[in-house]
Structure formats: structure tokens, C-alpha cells
Write a structure and sequence with these properties.
Elements: H1 5-12, E1 19-20, E2 25-29, H2 36-42, E3 45-46, E4 50-52, E5 68-70, E6 75-78, E7 91-94, E8 104-108, E9 111-112, E10 119-128, E11 133-141, E12 148-157, E13 164-173, E14 178-187, E15 202-210, E16 213-220, E17 226-236, E18 247-253, E19 256-265, E20 271-281, H3 290-304, H4 306-324, E21 327-329, H5 332-348, H6 375-387, H7 390-402, H8 404-413, H9 435-438, H10 444-459, H11 463-483, E22 485-487, E23 492-494, H12 512-535, H13 537-547, H14 551-563, E24 568-569, E25 574-575, H15 599-602, H16 605-610, H17 619-625, H18 632-642, H19 653-663, H20 667-678, H21 695-709, E26 719-721, E27 731-738, E28 741-748, E29 751-759, E30 762-766, E31 769-773, E32 779-781
Parallel strand pairs: 26-30
Antiparallel strand pairs: 1-2, 2-10, 3-4, 4-5, 6-7, 8-9, 8-14, 10-11, 11-12, 12-13, 13-20, 14-19, 15-16, 16-17, 17-20, 18-19, 21-27, 22-23, 24-25, 27-28, 28-29, 29-32, 30-31
Bound molecules: beta-D-glucopyranose.
Length: about 800
């Protein structure tokens, strides 16, 4: 009975060493078809505008999840329910698997190259995170073994030209001269594996193909997004001029265009095909111009050439790494883990378009439909706030501001005042498909307001409150006021019938986190109102009259903040997760057998709901958000009680626990949880990486390092750090963007070194002491305890 996460992991995980440890690359050496979906997720590429899984270019008859996703394009897939109830969302928005544009069919001497059939030697799939390039190399012999070729393929989705992708595909015959046929194509005959009714989401609008390339335009049914994909292919490595000795034949059929290119190659002669791709949508252009724009993109790309495009793209990555890298010395596994997380965050969201957001799986799979969850505000925002220009975080806030009317409609549909932001959304409308669970997770509303608070204290951009923030804050406060009810028997306000962040409890009463955050939102609404009245009196007057905020309503808000019921377990001196939690059989995770875990794959839902097990930070999520309002002892007592009962079956869980563990002096625990989040996908810890990567929890990995090990806080708008050095690390270094100052923080056994590398001088608290940091005076402070902590 009972085993720690580390032991369990050691027992079962045959994914742990699948990829080689390398600081900048993810290297798959040798091909394992049974792990292909897992590797495809890990090897995904994205550039904010689009993304593709690590699928093969050539035909592959083995198991694979083909995936191409275009940002902001969704399909409203009709909800599946047994018994329809009022309030169910009509549809679950899904990012549709879009036209496959990487495809290049290859025939060697008339035999079709298929990695499921051919004999492979020296197979390598390498994701170069420094350059944002995916490469494959292998030698393949045809089933009869009379053709042997060497293949190397490289591709990237340009960060410099977001609508452009490029592939360089090279073949060298090893045994004898052969005829090679390439068929670069765009294939719109694709489907989503998770389609609720097996529907095809796309219809064709237009297609055209000619010698040299072509375009295919598809439209999503119902939501009517047009997506045009254009291609252009060039051959090189020939002994003759292109155009002589080569046959090119355009091919087209419904939702499919290709060009068949035949060429003869000598033994040892490398033939290269470069495929340029352009992908445009009518989110950016008029419908009738979308296809022409995609063709423009490939024409421009071809005239720049593969190497030119690659240089531009690598240049963009260089800038990203200069600003966003976390360097860890002495622990290559940890280094690879954190870079993998930072890499994928940057591939998923670039922050230039406030209509876009961050899906829990980014562009790496179908799960969670590419929709926006509270994950963005609660977990992702700190990464973007501290590592990017303020505009990026601001765009994440504006995304919600633009959805305010829909959030009002959403509250109204449930018969409530104010605004209720959706748990799952593409366009502001609620579209969750796990209705029974997520419908009652009204706590997400608090995260939207908390994000505004977090943004203001990091950027100092208080103007945002006057321009946009207060409208959102007031609408959410109004919702809480209506959703809470007064209970005269206890003389308390209560919020009943909710699901807290811990989704392994549904329809509970008085979830401490939800009630606590509701009070916090109401108090913050007063703070902001007071600030506006003082600093922006005219705007404030206009806003208050537009929002029709009466004294009576404000009085109720005040009353709620004073009389909200917040369940406590007095004898244990902890907050009680919800009414009645203490009456459960309070077993710990260590009481479980290894085979029980993960519970969500082994236990009935009924058994899970009855159990005391916590899926993810719940009370602790509140102590994390409102960290400055609780002392260390309170955090420790709650951690000691809840963490041993937490199964961390949401990828969002370990990071919050790691941050608190570091703060309360549990360095071993903090490190164990850090590793669990940093290498979650590289080692397939939750056994679901094949569905896609856990993108939103990747920002949590960043939190575990910067807010956990380095103890960074921004309480009251003042920056402080309180670093420790994990035992297995020699040093670590990162940048912090805070209120117009850019700092470089380096932590090693010899001390903490903070330099101002951009922007204005600032006052930083290190441990207990304040330091004024200017260009000429960095801070140099010994590491507390003088030695490494943890294990
Ligand atoms: C978690 C939620 C989260 C969602 C998307 C669920 O497993 O419990 O908190 O919002 O995944 O990441």
C-alpha cells in the first residue's frame, strides 16, 4: 500500500527516457510506432497563427493523429446530451483539424514510401527549440529491399511571416539510380477524431492547381470561416536545369490538390524538394481575397527562398530566447524541461491579436477544442506579464473585455445579474461539454478580475481600470452579489451549488475558494471605484451612471464582504474546502495502491466524488492568489492537510503546490512538484500526452521556478524575491519585466545578482532588504542560508 509519486513514476514510466536529454533539442532516436502519437504531440510546431503536430510529410499507414490547426477558427459542434436541460450550451466549439498542408507523397522506383512498411535505419526526429525547426533523418529500404534511400526533412512555421510555412525534403538513392516521384499536396479530406456526431466540419469553396503550385480554399460549416491554403514547390540538386528532364503534372479532386513531380536521380545524388505554404483566413482578409492572399504569401516566400525564410525565423527565435530563456546550470533534465515549456508557450500565443487566446492544448491536439479556459488568467498570465511587453498581457485582458456583453448574456441565461464569464469559450459564448462539472465552476469569474489586478500591479497601467477594467470588475461583482444569498439563521451570506477548482467534488455548498474569491472581487471593486472617483472623476461619474450602480446595491456588496460564510475547520486551524468535507473518510494518497492512480482512469465517477481526493489546488489556489493576506503558518497548515490528499490529476496542480512548498520551507517537495510539471509531457507523466501537450500548465512550470524557487512576488505593486537554489542546480538565471524595468536575475551558490538590463531603475526587496537597482549599481546578495536547499 502507498507509494510516493517518485516511486510510482520509477515503477511504471517507460516514456521517461524516450527522448534524449539535450539542453536545446528534443531528440527521438529510433522510431517506436506505438509511441508515435506521443512523439507527434511533443514535436508540434506553431507560430501563433497556426500549428501542426509532428506528423510525417510522406504517407504513413500506421497510427497517427494528423493535426493542423488555425488560430481563431472554430466549428460549433452540436452538444451531446442524454437529457436536455435548460441552460445547456448549444454547442461545443472545436478547433477543426484544417487542411493538411505538409503532405509530400513519395515514390521510389514506383514503390510508395511508407514508414509503417519500409525498413528504417538510423531514424531521428529532432525538435530544435533554439531555432524552432523540426528535422527528421533516416535511411529506408523498401519492403522488398531493392530500393534504399537516405532522407532528411526539415520544416518550420515562420515566426517572421505568420502565414508562411516551409519544408525542405531531400532524398539520396543509396544503391542505384532511381526514378523519384514527389507529390506535394494539400488535403482537405480531413476530420476531427473528437467530432461529436462524426460530422465533416469543412466544405470546399474553391481550388486551383497549375504547374508549380495551387490553392485550396475550405469553409467551416455553420461558423463559415474561410481558410485558404496555397503551395508552391521547387526542385534542386538536379544536374539539369529545372524544367528539363522533369515531369510535372497537376492533380485535383474534391478538397484536394497535388502536383506530381517525376525526376530521375543517380546513386548518391541528393534531390531536394522545397515546399512553400501560405495559409490565410477571412478573419484577416475579405472572403473573396483570402485565396489570393495565400498565393501572394507563397510567391513572396519562394522569392525569399528557404534559407532566407529560415534566417528570418531563427532571428525571431533568437530574440525570444534572449528575453524569455531560463538558464539552469548543473541539471540538464531540468534545463531541457523548462526550455520545452517556454518554447511551446511562445509557439502558441504571440499576443499580437486580442481576438486570440491560449487553449489548454494549444495547437497540439484536439482535446479541449482549442477553447479558452480560466487557465489563461489563473496560470498563463504571470508568464506573459513578466517575460513580454505589457501589450501582450493587456491583449489577454482585452480579449475578456470584448466578451463582456456575452458574459452578461450568459449570466442572464442562468437568471442572474451581472456577468458570468464562460468556463469554455471561443467567442465569449459558453460552450462547455462537461456540463455537470464545469457549469458550476463559477469561480472562473474571479480569475478574470484577479488577472486585471495582477496586470495593474505588474505594469502600473492604472489607466486600464478607467478605460476597460472597472466595467468588467463591476459586472462580475454584481454577479457575485446576486449569486450569494443571505442565510438569516447563520446571519451569513452563502454560495451554494458550485464546483470549486477541485473538479472531483461537484455541486457543493460554500466552497471556501469560491466564497473567498467572491469577497475579494467585491473588495477590489470598491478599491477600484474609490481610485476612479479620486483620479478620474469624470470618467467615474459616467461609468457609475452607465452601470446604474445604486447606493443600495453597493450597500449589499459591502454587507457580503463583511458577512460571507467562509468554512473553517477550527480544531485543525485550516480552511475547509467546502461544507461537510471534514465528514468524509479522510484518507491520504499514500493510502492508495499504485494501480488506483490516476483515479480518473481507474475509479468510477461515483467513487471519485465520494472520496476525499483533491484533483488540483483548491483551498491552496486561494492561498496562492491571496498570498499577501495569509501568513506562512496558515499556508503550512493548509498545505500539510490538503497536499497529501491531492492527486494532481490536473496538470495545473503541481505548479501551485510547488510555489507554496518553496515558500513554506519544503524544498524537496517543491523540487519534486517542479520536475513533475516541467517534464510532464516529455515523460508522459499523466499518460495523455498523445492527445496533445498541456500548454497552459507550461506557464505553471515558469511559475514554479520564478515564483517558487526564486520566490518572486509583486505584493502591493512592489517587487520582491526570496531565492533558494535547488540542490542539483549550480545556478539559474531569468529575466523579469516589471513596471518599465527589465531585470536579469542570477542565482548561484556564490550569491544572488540582479542587474538592470533595460528601462528604469527600481527598488527590489531581496529577502528582507530593499535594494535600489540602477544601470550602474546591480544588487549582489548572498544566498540565504549560504547553501543550497532542497533535494
Ligand atoms: C481542470 C480545469 C482546467 C481544464 C483545462 C481540467 O482538467 O480541472 O481547471 O480549466 O482542465 O485545462
Amino acid at each position: 500500500m502507498g507509494s510516493s509519486f517518485e516511486e510510482r513514476k520509477d515503477n511504471k514510466n517507460d516514456f521517461e527516457d524516450y527522448f534524449q536529454i539535450d539542453e536545446w533539442r528534443i531528440v527521438e532516436k529510433g522510431f517506436s510506432p506505438d509511441k508515435n502519437r506521443f512523439a507527434e504531440s511533443v514535436m508540434s510546431l506553431g507560430n501563433g497563427h497556426m500549428g501542426i503536430r509532428g506528423n510525417f510529410e510522406e504517407h504513413y499507414s500506421g497510427d497517427s493523429l494528423q493535426g493542423t490547426y488555425i488560430a481563431g477558427v472554430y466549428y460549433p459542434d452540436k452538444t451531446v446530451v442524454g437529457w436536455w436541460k435548460i441552460g445547456y450550451p448549444e454547442y461545443y466549439a472545436k478547433v477543426p483539424n484544417a487542411a493538411d498542408f505538409i503532405g509530400i507523397d513519395v515514390e521510389i522506383g514506383g514503390e510508395r514510401l511508407d514508414l509503417a512498411q519500409w525498413h528504417l535505419e538510423d531514424f531521428k526526429r529532432i525538435l530544435n527549440m533554439q531555432k524552432g525547426v523540426l528535422r527528421r533523418e533516416f535511411t529506408a529500404a523498401s519492403p522488398e529491399k531493392d530500393n534504399r534511400i537516405e532522407v532528411s526533412v526539415e520544416r518550420f512555421l515562420s515566426l517572421a511571416r505568420r502565414e508562411v510555412a516551409a519544408i525542405s525534403y531531400s532524398i539520396t538513392p543509396l544503391e542505384k539510380p532511381v526514378d523519384i516521384s514527389f507529390s506535394p499536396h494539400i488535403d482537405g479530406n480531413i476530420r476531427n477524431e473528437d467530432a461529436n456526431y462524426d460530422e465533416i466540419f469543412w466544405e470546399e469553396v474553391d481550388r486551383g492547381v497549375h504547374s508549380g503550385g495551387g490553392q485550396l480554399t475550405l469553409r467551416t460549416k455553420k461558423s463559415e470561416f474561410n481558410v485558404a491554403t496555397a503551395m508552391r514547390s521547387e526542385l534542386s540538386g538536379l544536374q539539369v536545369e529545372e524544367g528539363t528532364g522533369i515531369e510535372r503534372e497537376p492533380i485535383e479532386r474534391k478538397k484536394f490538390i497535388a502536383e506530381n513531380i517525376q525526376v530521375s536521380a543517380e546513386r548518391g545524388q541528393e534531390i531536394n524538394l522545397t515546399k512553400y505554404i501560405g495559409v490565410t483566413t477571412d478573419r484577416d482578409y475579405k472572403k473573396e481575397r483570402t485565396a489570393a492572399r495565400a498565393e501572394d504569401r507563397v510567391r513572396e516566400a519562394a522569392s525569399c527562398g528557404y534559407d532566407g525564410l529560415l534566417d528570418e525565423h531563427v532571428g525571431e527565435w533568437q530574440e525570444i530566447w534572449r528575453d524569455n530563456d531560463i538558464k539552469i546550470e548543473g541539471d540538464k533534465k531540468a534545463q531541457q524541461g523548462i526550455r520545452f515549456n517556454i518554447f511551446h508557450l511562445n509557439q502558441t500565443y504571440t499576443g499580437h491579436d486580442p481576438r486570440l487566446n491560449i487553449g489548454p492544448k494549444g495547437f497540439t491536439g484536439e482535446r479541449y477544442g482549442g477553447a479558452t479556459y480560466w487557465d489563461t488568467e489563473a496560470y498563463c498570465l504571470p508568464f506573459y506579464l513578466n517575460s513580454k511587453d505589457d501589450e501582450i498581457a493587456r491583449n489577454l485582458l482585452l480579449y475578456r473585455y470584448h466578451h463582456l456583453d456575452k458574459a452578461r448574456e450568459n449570466a442572464d441565461k442562468l437568471g442572474l445579474d451581472g456577468a458570468l464569464y464562460p468556463m469554455v469559450t471561443m467567442n465569449g459564448e459558453e460552450c462547455h461539454n462537461e456540463w455537470e462539472i464545469t457549469f458550476e465552476e463559477i469561480h472562473r469569474n474571479a480569475a478574470i478580475v484577479y488577472a486585471i489586478y495582477n496586470y495593474i500591479r505588474h505594469t502600473g497601467d492604472r489607466q486600464y481600470l478607467a478605460d476597460y477594467g472597472f466595467e468588467v470588475i463591476a459586472a462580475v461583482a454584481r454577479f457575485w452579489s446576486d449569486r450569494a444569498h443571505y442565510n438569516p439563521r447563520r446571519d451569513k451570506y452563502m454560495i451554494i451549488g458550485v464546483t470549486g477548482p477541485n473538479e472531483y467534488e461537484n455541486n457543493v455548498h460554500n466552497n471556501w475558494y469560491t466564497n473567498r474569491m467572491a469577497v475579494w472581487c467585491l473588495n477590489y471593486a470598491f478599491d477600484v471605484k474609490n481610485y476612479l472617483e479620486k483620479e478620474h472623476p469624470e470618467r467615474s461619474e459616467k461609468l457609475l451612471s452607465r452601470l446604474e450602480l445604486t447606493e443600495e446595491e453597493l450597500e449589499r456588496w459591502r454587507d457580503i464582504t463583511e458577512k460571507m460564510y467562509l468554512p473553517r475547520w477550527q480544531e485543525r486551524e485550516i480552511f475547509e474546502q467546502q461544507d461537510g468535507y471534514r465528514d468524509k473518510k479522510l484518507d491520504k494518497v499514500s493510502d492508495l495502491d499504485a494501480e488506483d492512480l490516476p483515479l480518473n482512469q481507474n475509479w468510477s465517477w461515483d467513487k471519485i466524488l465520494r472520496s476525499p481526493y483533491v484533483k488540483q489546488a483548491d483551498v491552496l489556489q486561494g492561498l496562492y492568489f491571496l498570498s499577501d493576506q495569509y501568513d506562512r503558518e496558515t499556508k503550512k497548515k493548509n498545505f500539510d492537510f490538503y497536499e497529501p490528499r491531492t492527486v494532481h490529476e490536473s496538470s495545473l496542480s503541481p505548479c501551485i503546490h510547488a510555489v507554496i512548498a518553496a515558500e513554506i520551507g519544503y524544498p524537496h517537495k517543491a523540487y519534486e512538484l517542479y520536475l513533475r510539471t516541467a517534464r510532464l509531457d516529455l515523460e508522459n507523466v499523466n499518460r495523455d500526452t498523445e492527445d496533445g501537450l498541456h500548454i497552459t500548465s507550461m506557464a505553471g512550470t515558469w511559475m514554479a521556478v520564478v515564483e517558487g524557487f526564486a520566490g518572486k512576488k509583486a505584493e502591493g505593486g512592489e517587487l520582491s524575491i526570496s531565492p533558494m537554489l535547488p540542490e542539483s542546480w549550480d545556478s539559474y538565471q531569468f529575466h523579469l519585466n516589471f513596471q518599465n524595468s527589465l531585470l536579469q536575475v542570477s542565482i548561484s551558490e556564490s550569491g544572488i545578482d540582479v542587474e538592470l538590463i533595460g528601462g528604469d531603475p527600481l527598488t527590489l526587496t531581496i529577502y528582507e532588504d530593499q535594494h535600489r537597482i540602477t544601470r550602474d549599481s546591480p544588487a549582489e546578495v548572498p544566498l540565504s542560508g549560504g547553501e543550497k536547499r532542497n533535494g
